[in-house]
UniProtKB/TrEMBL annotation:
Keywords: Cytoplasm, Ribonucleoprotein, RNA-binding, Signal recognition particle. This is Signal recognition particle 14 kDa protein. Residues 93-124 are annotated as: Disordered. Residues 103-115 have a biased composition (Basic and acidic residues). Signal peptide: none annotated. The keyword NAD does not apply. Belongs to the SRP14 family. SUPFAM superfamilies: Signal recognition particle alu RNA binding heterodimer, SRP9/14 (SSF54762). It comes from Olea europaea subsp. europaea. Its main location: cytoplasm.
Length: 124
């Protein structure tokens, strides 16, 4: 796994999305992290030091994995850039076909009533 600075990470993420436009997926995960071991965090707590938490962002396309750590100062700018990339690159998504339960039930009722009306007309 390659850990990059936030700006090169966003550039590489854009490249990943471009490579997988025709076929493939990109998985992005965000995780709350302090980038310190549990022992170090416990020592800092006992000493009264403040632990600075960061956001660990990972992205993979199945072949290549990249990651970055985003601090609280850069978080707003990173999120804005990340959102722009996602909006621009998610054009290949297809809308899921949903069958509305009400419409399906209504159409079934209409078909049943038509069959009954034609059956009653033929018996008369």
């Amino acid at each position: 796994m390659v850990r990059l600075q936030p700006d090169p990470f966003l550039n590489e993420l854009t490249n990943m999305f471009e490579r997988t436009t025709e076929k493939g997926s990109v998985w992005v995960t965000l995780k709350h992290s302090s980038d310190k071991s549990k022992v170090q965090r416990n020592k800092m707590k006992t000493c009264g030091e403040k632990i600075e938490y960061r956001c660990l962002v990972r992205a993979t396309d199945g072949k290549k994995t990249i990651s970055t750590l985003v601090g609280p100062k850069d978080h707003q700018r990173f999120q804005a850039s990340y959102a722009t990339i996602l909006k621009a690159r998610m054009t290949a998504l297809r809308k899921r076909e949903r069958k509305d339960k009400r419409k399906a039930a209504d159409s079934d009722k209409k078909e049943d009533s038509k069959i009954r009306s034609t059956a009653s007309k033929t018996t008369n």
